[in-house]
Amino acid sequence: MARQHIRQMLQLKAVTHITVLCEPSEAMYAEAAKLFVEAGLEPPPNQPDLAQLLKDYAGQLDAAFIITPHAYHHDQTQACLEAGLDVLLEKPMVMNAAEAQSLIETRDRTGRVLVVAFPGSLSPQIRAAVRLLRSGEYGPILNISGVLWQNWGPNTTGTWRQNPILSGGGFLFDTGAHLLNTVCDLAGEDFAEVAAWLDQRGRPVETLAVVMGRLKSGALVTLNACGEAIPSCASDVRVFCKKAILYTGVWGENLDVQFRGDEPPRPIPVPPSIGVWEQFLAVRSGDLPNPCPPEVGLRMSRLWDAIGDSAAQNGAPVRIA
What strands, in cross-sheet order, belong to the sheet with 114-116? Predict the structure, then answer.
């Protein structure tokens, strides 16, 4: 993921200079360095110790892009914010609601910018959907249905993504984090009650999941995640309102609306996406409201905590204060 983001960032050489990398693996640093050479640039130095990096480069950096296993997100983000850097943080934001609240406090105390790099929330489709839902044009939300599937279990065998200490969960907290975050963003409110079942299918972490929930407004939500599917990676999200049905995906793959059952859904026009890093730059410059602030991450973290609590009780409903 880091190399994928670096490729996109190197296309913005006029506005972005990557000063230093923080990569503990020499082999992975070598792979990243190749991207700079291919772009005709000198590879930046590598300082694998973040605390030392922040000390050595004090006053020379504006921002950090954190692309690491989930368990490291909180401490690394907090350190960068406290060092005076704005932060773009890969998903999921943190491991639990306590860490989410901690980052919000650090963000407020330091006055820095914190954007979570969820492509769904950063997509023009989800941003348009949120505006339409909040406008009341389609009436109140009644139900939300989200489905996500991928051959995640076989694809991630032997990686840190199936190590619960580093990952904090399995399919539902990795690829499935897109499902949780996008639904929370569309809902625009906290869950009041959650019931969940997680199935590990013999793996160290869950790869199948079913979640039922009730929002504080009373709207009902169902989430179905299959990480043992045929070779694939796809999603479907439907928001049932009083006057319309919105169709989209967890990454904002599409956005359609249907007003009558005897008429097909029709696309909703949206502006083109300007990309994850470009949006972060626009937020930093004040040209764009933060499309995915840590408050959305907190809502998702509260949901994830409740999912874990319910699953540990074989699906017993859990109330969220």
Answer: 63-66, 86-89, 114-116
Q: Each residue of 21-78: pLDDT tens digit?
A: 999 999 999 999 999 999 999 999 999 999 999 999 999 999 999 999 999 999 999 9
SS3 assignment for 41-70: CCCCCECCCHHHHHHHCCCCCCEEEECCCH
- Centre a 10 Å sphere on the Cβ of residue 309 and count the other Cβ atoms it contains: 16
Computed from CA positions of residues 171, 172, 176, 177, in that sequence, does the dihedral angle turn out positive or negative? negative
Q: How far is CA 27 from the centre of its chain?
A: 27
Angle at 44 between CA 43 and CA 47, to 5 degrees: 130
Q: Report all structural domains of the chain as residue ranges with CATH numbers, in order of start.
A: 2-116 (3.40.50.720), 124-258+293-319 (3.30.360.10)
CA distances from 302 to 4, 34, 61, 94, 138 (A): 30, 40, 33, 11, 27
Q: Is 184 exposed, middle or buried (0-12, 13-18, 19+ CB in 10 A)?
A: buried
- Which residues pair with residue 184 across a beta bridge? none
Degrees, nearest 5: CA angle 249-251-253 = 60
- pLDDT, tens only, 168-179: 999 999 999 999
- Name every residue whose Cβ is closer than 8 Å to that of residue 156 and which is 6 or more positions away in sequence: 162, 174
Q: Is the pTM of this model over 0.90?
A: yes
Write the pLDDT tens digit of every residue in 225-241. Answer: 999 999 999 999 999 99
Rounded Cα gap, residues 41 and 247, in angstroms: 43
